[in-house]
From TrEMBL, chain B:
Listed name of the protein: Uncharacterized protein
Superkingdom in the source lineage: Bacteria
């Protein structure tokens, strides 16, 4: 009995592992409510913004100015006054805040147990390297991304992993399960693409920059089990949790290191593949260019770099779509998102040293292992949160 | 064991100014409170559902049993449908405002209709 109502999977379907937080009945129910709220907002309320734009906001602007919109900022200023857009925005923001509250209340009461679970899996392993002296980059400190209080890096106690446990347990809710049981649809999609399109490419050393809790690097390491994979991030709670999670899943070829991607100190030409997944839009302009140059320096000749992001804003993209995709930038605390998607990514890579003809750009869809999720994938377009990405990169 | 104030920390604000979308921030405040109440009601409803299912199945009730309850495929779908219907019910006014916008022919002023009916 497949329903037409496009229901998100119950949270019970989320993939669990040895460091995953325990959730009681009511905590699961709270997540189920929020996943349904997000699905409703994405499928019923969000499309109304386009209707309001076409029927109300745009005609009014045209009548007043005697011309059409010329920039997405003009669209945003005009839409801000629209009651439907206001209601959707207020609901979406509220839903994100409630998701953070639900996740934090779930993990904080088991903060000690989670730290102990992680420590048991991490102790004695040389594949986790933390650096308490690492300076957290300004772009991470300046704002709490996705309205996560304390962001990725804040430690509430010794050995804290709550930031990661919150992220891991709640991502399934924000994305309504569309990234698969382990929230790893991005990593699975890119490794499947690479194995299919370039079976001759056998990377021996892989670097993942801004790995977070490693949910996307694990499928990459599984796809290339003989490769040495290095996953770096600036946030200790994410690395502790990510390493423990990978160990528990039986993935032992990843070394998690606390490092800044713009200044990692790895040797020239020391990697075959350098990957980022939904990371670059959380940096800043200068860091992005520095990371680009570092990637070029660290790649071996014949090596590959790939970056999973949302589609760039180009002249071909309608102003309305640019405007609606910008919502997360301003209202879900991802301020660089807007600037990042304006950048000519080909130019970014050629400035870093790559040849123009070596540039590649592809679209990939999340590989999803949930039957309900596959069904939903066809119908949900939740700009900026859809499991369909723009991947750009280059061969060196 | 280090002591952390869970209640406060779970509800703390993220760094970055909070946007308010309505002209009157009080409206936004009420909306946020209402949504939280809506969620808690959903939680209670789901718990009740669990208890009922367990009672029917076994006639025995324990807290641990409720906390470890895993819905089967059919129960999962029924529960998610309930959540979906519940949300649609609470946010009904928004859907209706949209329908009015999309189909203005079905949204004529009733006083005008009264006038018209009086004439025809």
């Amino acid at each position: 009995m497949m329903s037409k109502e496009n229901l998100p999977p119950v949270w019970n379907r989320v993939g669990k592992h040895g460091v995953f937080p325990e959730a009681n009945h009511d905590e699961i129910a709270r997540y189920n409510f929020l996943a349904n709220l997000n699905r409703y907002l994405a499928t019923v309320v969000s499309p109304g913004n386009k209707i309001a734009y076409e029927k109300r906001v745009r005609p009014k602007f045209q009548a007043e100015r005697d011309r059409d919109f010329e920039t997405r900022e003009e669209v945003r200023e005009a839409m801000k006054k629209d009651p439907h857009y206001q209601a959707w925005s207020a609901l979406r923001r509220s839903s994100m805040e409630m998701r953070q509250q639900a996740g934090r209340s779930l993990v904080l009461h088991q903060a000690n147990e989670l730290a102990e679970k992680a420590e048991r899996l991490n102790q004695g392993k040389d594949t986790l390297k933390l650096n308490p002296d690492l300076e957290i980059p300004h772009y991470v400190r300046v704002v709490d991304h996705h309205c996560m209080p304390g962001s990725y890096y804040t430690e509430l106690m010794e050995g804290d992993v709550t930031a990661a446990a919150n992220y891991d347990s709640g991502l399934f809710v924000t994305t309504t399960g569309l990234l698969g049981r382990m929230n790893d649809g991005g990593g699975r999609a890119i490794s499947q693409w690479l194995k299919t399109e370039h079976p001759e490419f056998q990377p021996k050393r892989i670097l993942d920059i801004g790995c977070g809790l490693g949910h996307n690097v694990v499928p990459i390491a599984q796809a290339y089990p003989d490769a040495e994979v290095i996953a770096i991030d600036v946030a200790a709670p994410m690395l502790r949790y990510g390493h423990a999670r990978a160990q528990d899943l039986g993935v032992n070829n990843i070394t998690f290191i606390q490092m800044d991607g713009a200044n990692s100190g790895f040797a020239d030409r020391s990697f075959d593949w350098i990957q980022t997944t939904m990371f670059l839009h959380e940096t800043s302009s200068k860091s992005l260019h520095r990371i680009g140059k570092e990637i070029y320096r660290m790649l071996k000749p014949g090596g590959l770099t790939l970056h999973i992001e949302q589609p760039q804003y180009s002249e071909d993209m309608e102003l309305y779509e640019q405007f609606i995709r910008d919502w997360d930038a301003y209202y879900n605390n991802e301020p660089f998102w807007s600037k990042m998607h304006d950048i000519d990514v080909k130019e970014l890579l050629t400035k870093a040293g790559f040849k123009e003809e070596a540039f590649i750009q592809i679209a990939v869809k999340a590989a999803n292992d949930i039957a309900e999720g596959q069904q939903a994938e066809k119908t949900v377009e939740d700009y900026g949160r859809s499991p369909i990405w723009n991947v750009f990169g280059a061969w060196k | 064991m280090e002591a952390i104030d869970r209640l406060l920390l779970a509800n703390s604000k993220s760094k970055g100014k909070r946007p308010y979308f309505f002209d009157d921030p009080a409206v936004e405040r009420v909306l946020n409170i209402t949504l939280a109440v809506a969620m808690e009601h959903a939680v209670t409803r789901e718990r009740l559902d669990t208890i009922e299912r367990l009672l029917i199945a076994k006639g025995i009730l324990s807290r641990a049993e409720i906390d470890t309850y895993e819905p089967d495929t059919i129960a999962a779908e029924e529960r998610q449908r309930w959540q979906a219907e519940y949300i649609a019910r609470i946010l009904r006014i928004i859907q209706q405002e949209l329908e009015a916008l999309e189909n203005p022919e079905n949204n004529r002023d009733v006083e005008d209709i009264a006038e018209e009916l009086g004439r025809t």
